[in-house]
């Protein structure tokens, strides 16, 4: 019979720092989802009487050929919400696995969300675009945007402080997992970095593609449907394949991953140039989305370049025993958990562990599992 649902049963360590880290993430998710949900409601109310646009709602302007659409703003708010759920997943997984690399990545990701909120506020109130001007007299919207920035700022400070404490607490876990072999420990560090980078790559590339397809490309443009139907799912499959190649240490697939990632910066540089060079001011498809897309392109480009470098390091470590070391640790951990369950049930005479390999003790279990 399954026991009660607790933080420990969900993999969260008993450390006060780990639980504070998750608590901050949960509070931030709740605050941002509530704020952005209300922002979406106000945006829909403003556009309620608007003329239908290409996607079925919005406002058409008579002075230009551009469509001022509510999805141009709602997409950004949805990205905020998705980003928070993604951040919560990063935090939860990092703490549950005592992964200091991913804990640091989660903190940096939260700072990126803060930068994104600053860009949104700039677009709305400091240097508003033509369509964003409709929010200029909406004081409630201004307060919501400021509150979003404040929440991200406070949580970024909290995450930074807790990251330091967790780094001190979890920093020796690699030694427990792989022993004193320095080569394996270095290889494992590159392995963890690449896993984290691939997760960030998925989020930023999909977010960029969704913004491009819904805000810039047109329903009548075949590129829109290629982006939605081929590029986005294809990218997800490719990055999932990258996870698999890293896990099983498949050199051929990893070479394909490195080559494809190495070629992709050419596309993003091309998009940056296209967004800023030779644009007709009276028919600018990037009018409301240039700042956001530039942010995502720059971040994605930087992540890809780092991912290529780290992928090469991981490729060079294939075959030195890291895969076997991780598999051995995972098997040993599963056996120890099974033994703990047997002890808890009162069947101390039974054992789920092969005692010919090592003697089971509760002290040994605490050393490995906590």
Automatic annotation (TrEMBL):
InterPro entries according to UniProt: UPF0658_Golgi (IPR040410)
Presence of keyword RNA-binding: no
Alphabetically ordered keywords of this record: Membrane, Transmembrane, Transmembrane helix
GO CC annotations, alphabetized: Golgi apparatus
Annotated transmembrane regions: 20-40, 73-92, 104-126, 146-167, 193-213, 225-246, 253-273, 293-312
Protein name: Uncharacterized protein
């Amino acid at each position: 019979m399954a026991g009660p649902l607790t933080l420990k049963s969900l993999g969260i360590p008993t450390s006060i720092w780990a639980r504070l880290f998750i608590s901050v993430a949960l509070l931030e998710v709740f605050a941002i989802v509530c704020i952005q949900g209300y922002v979406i409601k106000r945006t829909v109310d403003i556009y309620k009487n608007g003329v239908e646009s290409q996607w079925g709602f919005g406002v058409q302007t008579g002075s230009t050929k551009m469509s001022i659409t509510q999805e141009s703003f709602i997409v950004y708010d949805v990205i905020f919400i998705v980003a928070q759920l993604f951040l919560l997943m990063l935090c939860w997984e990092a703490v549950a696995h005592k992964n200091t690399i991913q804990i640091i990545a989660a903190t940096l990701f939260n700072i990126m969300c803060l930068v994104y909120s600053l860009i949104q506020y700039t677009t709305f109130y400091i240097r508003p675009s033509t369509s964003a001007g409709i929010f200029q007299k909406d004081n409630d919207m201004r307060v919501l945007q400021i509150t979003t920035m404040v929440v991200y700022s406070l949580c970024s400070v909290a995450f930074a402080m807790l990251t330091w404490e967790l780094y001190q607490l979890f920093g020796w876990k690699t030694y427990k997992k792989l022993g004193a072999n320095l080569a394996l420990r270095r290889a494992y560090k590159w392995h963890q970095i690449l896993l984290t980078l691939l997760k960030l790559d998925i989020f930023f590339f999909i977010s960029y593609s969704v913004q491009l397809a819904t805000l810039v490309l047109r329903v009548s443009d075949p590129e829109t449907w290629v982006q939605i139907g081929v590029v986005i799912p294809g990218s997800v499959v490719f990055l999932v394949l990258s996870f698999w190649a890293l896990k099983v240490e498949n050199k051929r697939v990893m070479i394909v991953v490195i080559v494809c990632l190495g070629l992709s910066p050419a596309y993003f540089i091309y998009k940056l140039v296209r967004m800023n060079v030779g644009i007709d001011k009276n028919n600018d498809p990037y009018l409301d989305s240039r700042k956001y897309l530039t942010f995502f392109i720059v971040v994605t480009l930087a992540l890809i370049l780092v991912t290529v470098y780290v992928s090469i390091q991981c490729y060079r470590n294939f075959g030195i025993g890291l895969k076997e070391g991780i598999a051995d640790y995972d098997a040993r951990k599963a056996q120890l958990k099974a033994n703990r369950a047997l002890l808890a049930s009162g069947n101390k005479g039974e054992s789920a562990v092969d005692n010919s390999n090592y003697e089971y003790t509760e002290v040994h279990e605490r050393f490995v599992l906590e």
